[in-house]
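Continued from yesterday's entry.
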Amino acid sequence: MIGRGGARWWLVLSLLLSAIFALLFWASTAFAELSSRADFREIQVQRTDSADLPYVISSEIDLQLSDELRNALERGVPLFFTLELRVYQPRKFWLDSLALKQSHTWRVQYNALLRQWRVVTDQSSVQEFSLDASLAHISGLYRWPIDGWQQLEPAVQYEGRMRLKLDTSLLARPFQITAINNSSAWSLSSPWKNFTVHLSAVKPSS
């Protein structure tokens, strides 16, 4: 049987534990809101009717930017997002052999004077009406050509890996320093996402 003193201690302990749990929950929620995140939901290799570029990749990415990155973009700071592709040929008794690598970079920038968003790649420059619409070009990648498909043997099953990162090396020098000094807020890199590349089994894109 617990006396009055013991009961009071149990009450104080319960209140203290409740406060700690609430603080931890608030901290984890706040950190989640402040952190950037990129996770692949789906990656598909598809076949096209083009003789020069018969294979393409489409993907869906859950992309969220930290408040600091969104604020930087809204102030007109251009940010660069790079998608990296690696294709490996598995080997039983040695390290996997790198068969193909390529990358694709988007520059997202806001013009405050014109109140226009723009998404620029090596092949195109597209005007958008909002930040979220601009990021949709990255999160919903559609028919990205596999340039070096000739290096792959159709009958061989390869292991593909993809990741998306904020490429701070392409920032202007002052912003590179900002990114280094505040690395957590300016850090964005998805885990490598594995998928199968087997050209002879690829279905045509719809």
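--- second protein ---
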Amino acid sequence: MPEVAQHAGARFAQEDFCMPVPARNSWPRLAVAICALLGVVACAPNSARTPLEPRLATSEQSRYGTMLRLAASARAAGDRAAAVNMYQQAIAQDRTRIDAYVLLGDTLVEMEAFDEAARTYEDALEIDRGNAAAHRGYARALLGLKRPEAAVLHYQAVLERAPNDIQAHNGLGVAFDLAGQHEAAQEAYRAGLAIAPDSMLLRNN
């Protein structure tokens, strides 16, 4: 009886843990099934593969947006150095989108890093020559560099695209004043006041 039990136990162990070897022509189907279970896309036939490009693009866009949000939070908290680093990381993620360049330039102007800000706005304008925010920021950087005549050109570029931009009217007036063109400065202020008569920004000039 012990011998019978021993043989029965041996058969149980073999049946429980040993799998029959599949027939040769069943291996391709089995390999695809295993790959599907494991999520291994590369193992599947070409027709069964999931395209990676859209997912990678979505992931990069997500990282880009995350870096912009983190940079905005750091900037709002007064940590401009951290904001600069995060905007630079966002640019590294996607060098074709202009918003990170403009925001980086604006932050650098706040830090009075006018040379670096000017270069950043130049990079932005290489992407979009008509971007009003980049022209406005570049003009501010040029004022910081004591180049008011050049700033005038960029404020005028803003007003060509956004004629009701009060900040651009005021900036243009300031640039004309610093360039010694006081009559032109007063015209710029008056043009802004015609749009926003209660603007203290313009009235103070």
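The radius of gyration is 33 Å. The chain has a mean pLDDT of 80. Will compare against the first tomorrow.
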